[in-house]
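Q: Here's a chain of 418 amino acids. Please give me its 3D structure as tokens.
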Amino acid sequence: MLRSMFSAISGLRGHQVMMDVIGNNIANVNTVGFKSGRVNFQDILSQTFRGSTAPNGDLGSINPAQIGLGMTVAGIDVLHTQGNLQSTGKLTDMAIQGDGFFILANGNQQYFTRDGAFDIALDGSLVNPASGLKVQGWTADSSGVIDTTIPVGPVSIPIGQRTTAQASTSATIRGNLDAGAPDGSTASTTLSLYDSLGVAHSIKVTFTKTGANAWSWEATADPLDSGTTTTSTGTINFTSSGLVDSATPPTGTLSIDLTNGAVTPLAFDPAATPATFDLTRMTQFSGASEPIGSANGFTSGTLVTFAVGNGGEITGVYSNGQTQALGQIAMASFLNPAGLLRTGQNMFGVSSASGNPSIGRPGSSSRGSVTTGSLEMSNVDLATQFTGMITAQRGFQANGRVITTSDEMLQELVNLKR
């Protein structure tokens, strides 16, 4: 039998595999995070008719004479090139700009994906809604601190969760007091202070000029705020340059007594280190008296929304206006991402060729950044695929013609007996 017929058969098989890969690429042209495949061919064993010889005397070298016996598929590569980002506006949709993979898990088994079409499950976990696998990362503690040195786990965004109140522990008054005001002139500002129960208390602080570069202050509680009293007073002195005199620092402790069951009293001391009632940022220059008061602390609130930064950090926004870190999305990178195994559902698994994942924050090392409200589309290039389809079709057709021609030659050989 003719060798050309068997070589052509291997060509038919190889180009059929090529069409299979192209067909799969085109089928996934709109699949989120899909990475296209590419077929590589190689020749197989060649039959040697004459070996090669080295130069000998007056004769030069003789090249070998070989006939190839066909082709085979050398490999099917996955092209991990960047796909275009499509804006969706959905907070839980995330795309990776650069290298790396999101990590999904169902217990101890981890999977890796570029598909960032996530959603929030009933238990607050960030999941892939198609598979139920949970997105992996690090969860912040009650104070918003994230420890990325511990193993990754499910990331949670507990919408509707209530945060505890934080009592005010420091207050600051800044702004100007009129240097040209006559003695007895007053200026005031209001502090909103929170107790341990998260209840806000309105405290009015009034400054009265008592002499050159000298002022006194007095705190009074809002008359409508029953059960809140204060008799706090003190002084503040300025230098000739209009700044607070460090030689005679402000005196008096702001102390508020409560009867609503909260921790009492609320106390703020200007002499503490650092000062919990800071008056040193005030000035005394000519112009309107405009003291401005501020304090820390907040009332209880519920988680209403969140934001994800380019580094994968998840920040919760609460109904009381406060923000706090909720967690950190982890990202994996591989020395050889082309060695990953496709496991279906837009996911990859580790293989001996890919190596173990390097897990860390997005944007660190070789990992890309996270773009929220967007999805990475397939990297399939239709122009390239259709060109490859024509190439595969013509290659298949040509190999079929070799089989037809070989058959005609055999037929001619059989007819020699006639």
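Q: Can you summarize the key feature?
A: Residues 85-163+302-376 form one domain.
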